[in-house]
Amino acid sequence: MSAFLPFSDDTLFDARWLSALSDEVPRAEALDRARPVVADAIARTGAAGAAALAGIEALVAAAALDAIPALLAAETVELPDAAAASERSIHELMSRVAYKRRELMPLFPELIERVAAVHAAAIRACGTARWRLMAARARMQPGRPSSPIQGAGTRYVKSDRFDARAAESLPGIDRTRADRILKRLGETPVPDELELRPLDGGGDLWTIKAGGVSRFILRVERDRRGPFYMVEDVGPQAA
User: Is residue 145, in this structure, part of any structural domain at all?
Assistant: First the structure.
C-alpha cells in the first residue's frame, strides 16, 4: 500500500494557528500583536502546501498505483471541502475578532488568498499525479481482451481490467455515457470530436474523449490483422 494519507480539513491550513488572536487585546497593541500571528499562519500554510506537493510527486516517482483512488478522492472531494472549511474558519475568526478590532482587517486578505492558492495547487497536483499513474498502470498492469475485437475500421476492445477501473473513477451514469461514446471509435475515419491523440511521448498510449472532462486511455496492441486499441482506463483528465 502507498503512504498516501487523506486530506483532512486542517492538513493545509489549521485555524488553531490563529488562536492567539483575541479581541481582548488593547486596541493600541492589537495590530502589532496580530501581525506576526497572521504572518506565521501564512508561512505555515505555504510550507504545508509545499510538503503536500512533494508528497504527491513522490507517489508518481514511486509508481504508487494503489494511490489512484485516494488521489481522485482528494482532488474531487477532500481538498475542495477543506478549502471551503478553511475559508469559513477564517471568516468566523474575522467576525469574532477583526470586526471588533477593525484595524486587523487588512491582515486577512493575503491569508485568504494563500489558503485558496495552496488548496488549488494541491488539487491540480492530485489530478496530474492521478492521470500519470493511470498511464503508468496501463503500461505496468495491462489487461487482455475482455471480448472479441470490435470496429470495422479502427479496431478496439476493452481490457479485462477496464470495468473495475472505470467503476473506480466514474459514477454509473458517466460510465454509460462513456460506453456510448466509445462505440464511435470503431467508425472510419475516427470522428474528429473524439479528439484521438497520443497521451504522452511514449507512442504506446492514446486517448479519446469519454464525455465531460473524462477521457479514455487506449493502449496500442497487435494481432495477426494488425494494430488495435486496448481500452485500459477512463477517468477525469487532469486540468
Answer: no
Has this prediction a pTM greater than 0.70? Answer: yes
Domain span holding position 171:
156-236
Is 1 within a domain? Answer: no
Q: Do residues 180 and 68 share a domain?
A: no
pLDDT 10s digits, 51-106: 999 999 999 999 999 999 999 999 999 999 999 999 999 999 888 876 677 788 88
217 burial type by CB count under 10 A (0-12 exposed, 13-18 middle, 19+ buried): buried
Give the ranges where the chain is alpha helix by DSSP (H): 27-61, 68-73, 79-93, 108-140, 162-169, 172-182
Alpha-carbon separation of residue 11 from 28, 44, 68, 72 (angstroms): 34, 11, 19, 17
